[in-house]
Amino acid sequence: MSRISRHPSPLPASRCMILAVSAVWTALPSFADSLIWTGGKSGTWNASSANLVWKDGSGAATAWIDGSDAVFDGSAQANITVSGPMSAHDIAVRPGTQPIYFLGDGPLSWTGWLTSAGGHGYVRCPLVDDGNGLHFNFGGHLYLQCPNRHTGGTYIKNTVNNALRAFIIDGANGKNANGDDLALGPVPETVQTNIFIEGGTVALHVGSSQDISVHRNRTILIRDGKTFYVSPNGTLRIKGDIVSENAGTSAFPTGTRLYAHSSWLGRTVLYGNNYFGKLTVTGNLEIHDGTTRVVTSGQGTEENAALYVQGNGSSYTTTRGYLLVSGGTLVNSQSGYRFHVNNYGHVDIAGGKVAMQYDAKKGEYGEYLNGLSSPGKTTIRDGGLLSCSKFRLSQTTAGNGGELFLEEGGTLRARYIGLDFNAARKGIVHFNGGALQSLEGNSNTSSTESPANANWAGSVFSVEAGGAVFDTANGQHIWFGRPLLSGVAAGETDGGLTCRLYSGRAVVLHEAFSGSTYTGPTRLEAAGSGTGDRTLQCRVANALPTAGTLQVGPGCKAGFSSWAGTSGSAERENADLPLTIARLEGAGYLFYDSLLNVTEAIAPVFDGAYGTLSFEKPFASNCDLEITGDANGCGRLEFKRAGQSLAGFSLKVADIANFSTTKGKAFYKIVDAPNGYTGQFASTNLPENWRVVYESNAVYLAPVNAFVMVVR
């Protein structure tokens, strides 16, 4: 009747089938090698021959025989005190859905599977193994509530119940300490495969208010084609790697998936270097460190997308459909394909990186779909980066489309931003201090899809307090063809548009950008090393807001012209375009500027430092010329070509008390015109001891006592 057989893990298919079938029988089977518990609700499981709480296949009472199958009746709660070392082959709780408690000092071991037909299990006696690990197939929740001693790993599955069941590392109600994972056995001295996901709907779980870490030396293996569910009620930190069984360099783990499920309201945090087929988030998941690689073999959406984040269907929360990338990298490593955020799902990239790998067959990096039939939300902030070929902004038929929040320190690196072509739909990009970069395609390629289709009217690019930042640090020009609208309350000033320009790179504003209403300045900043041009090119008339300020930093240039010809052609005809702005500041260079009209003031100053503001062509403006200086010099205007008239300028020197009265006139040159100019300032507004000196190719500001009169 006894059986002391051992078998390797996993079990042969025939053995697994017997277990799966026996787990749902309504009557207890009779096996020659099974002993059936008859001890009632409470009893002691030990080796004493006097403890006749078992019966064999013939129904005769018998003492426990090591290596037998132990069968418990799940129709009533059982409290089994394991007294002394007990070893079984399989342990089955069937039928019924009542809980079973394993208590005592044990230790308890088995070489097959511990299976429940549906009742919960609570293990408070220590568990050991023969080196081949412990195998659990539980149709109810299983609580491991004390430190265990098995060294061969933990195998978990739920093939006896379709409902999501929890495999619980319990650090509150038993002998475990809150924070440790010793319920999974001693921590391996070196990294090893230690937790095996065998299939079915079973989730790794920790209880409410608990914060438990799975040690970095425990690698979690997902069997090929299986799903690993994580669904804690507290905080579950997985510090080791999660890998799929088939994870070679040429193969990919077909069908394997990590699923952050929403059955409970806790949070799972990943730290390791992970590799599996798909990532689905309907609960709360954080990627804190390492590289998480997801793989898919098709351009799918929702459950078929490489990444799918699904919210609660009515509002954005941090407990349902929330993915926080606080560090590390989330990358689609097999091909371009798609990440999908939907149904009020929220991806919050705050310090980490979300990236699409290049797909040579498609010639692109994949699509980030921020919603489809329902809204999605993406936030990029605090050092976070999202890199994709196409960022598709959701626009729902309800008019409450998805949103992108590009916050301070965040970067969106995309080939272009795309939208659904339906005029009834709305989607919003909130520019609030974060940077837009171009992933690739720096020759006449727009960062937004062509707005020729009238249905673009529903989309909004909103500039908020932090402002919009166009950044060419990725080595690509940025082409942008949609208006930037102010996103602050009436009477308030938004952050404007900052063009952070690196050597040889440009920001090109074209097509419908002239409808922009942002109220902050348009600012050009030189960044990085190198001496190449750093350019803002406006390819549409009155591209900048008429009441706004253009600030051109040192080493930067701005031009205003149409562009005829195709990309790469040797001949282009550039026709100057009109631009009316209220104020112009800076120490850079303006070209194609003959139709420039400044209505309030021009000031050769940038960030409080005076410099030289240069112009390629003469232009006509009626405004103030504000000169800033000190005892060491002052700002100036430089006109490259002849013919510039000064008659429309009224000179104002607000800080002239800081100027030196002992320097010669050449020290304060305020206009440099090597090819000449015409006219004089409409007014000068200078104190009595200062005067303007006009010469053929320059204009000076000089103190009266700096001149020496020579009498012949």
List its traits.
43% strand, 712 residues, disordered C terminus, 11-stranded mixed sheet, mainly beta, 37-stranded parallel sheet, single chain
Structural class computed from helices and strand pairing:
mainly beta
Instruction: Estimate the global geometry from the Cα principal axes.
Output: elongated
Low-confidence spans: pLDDT under 50, at least 5 residues?
A: 1-32, 442-457, 565-571, 708-712
Q: What is the percent of helical residues? A: under 10%
Radius of gyration, in angstroms, nearest whole number = 36 Å
Q: How large a portion of the residues is in β-strands, by DSSP E?
A: 35-45%
Gap from first CA to last CA: 138 Å
Question: What profile does the largest beta sheet have?
Answer: 37 strands, parallel
What's the average pLDDT?
A: 86
Number of helices: 1
Total strands: the figure is 64
Structure overview:
The chain is mainly β. The protein has a domain at 623-706. It has one helix and 64 strands. It has a 37-stranded parallel β-sheet that branches. Strands 4-3-1-5-7-9-11-13-15-18-21 form an eleven-stranded mixed β-sheet, with no helix packed on it. β63 and β64 form a beta hairpin. The chain is elongated. It starts with 12 loop residues before the first helix and ends in a 9-residue tail after the last strand. Mean pLDDT is 86; it is low at 1-32, 442-457, 565-571 and 708-712.
Layout of helices and strands:
Elements (H helix, E strand, L loop, with lengths): L12 H10 L11 E4 L4 E4 L8 E2 L5 E2 L6 E4 L5 E11 L2 E3 L6 E11 L3 E3 L4 E3 L10 E5 L3 E3 L9 E5 L6 E5 L22 E9 L1 E4 L5 E4 L3 E5 L4 E4 L4 E4 L3 E3 L12 E4 L6 E4 L3 E3 L1 E4 L2 E4 L3 E4 L12 E4 L11 E4 L3 E4 L5 E5 L2 E6 L2 E4 L10 E4 L5 E6 L3 E9 L9 E5 L3 E9 L7 E12 L20 E13 L6 E3 L4 E2 L10 E6 L2 E5 L12 E6 L6 E5 L10 E4 L3 E5 L18 E8 L2 E3 L4 E8 L1 E2 L2 E2 L1 E4 L7 E4 L2 E2 L2 E2 L1 E4 L4 E2 L3 E4 L16 E4 L4 E2 L11 E6 L2 E6 L9
Parallel strand pairs: 1-5, 2-6, 5-7, 6-8, 7-9, 8-10, 9-11, 10-12, 11-13, 12-14, 13-15, 14-16, 15-18, 16-19, 17-20, 18-21, 19-22, 20-23, 22-25, 23-26, 24-27, 25-28, 26-29, 27-30, 28-31, 29-32, 30-33, 31-34, 32-35, 33-36, 34-36, 35-37, 36-38, 37-39, 38-39, 39-40, 40-42, 40-43, 41-44, 43-45, ...
Antiparallel strand pairs: 1-3, 3-4, 52-53, 56-57, 61-64, 63-64
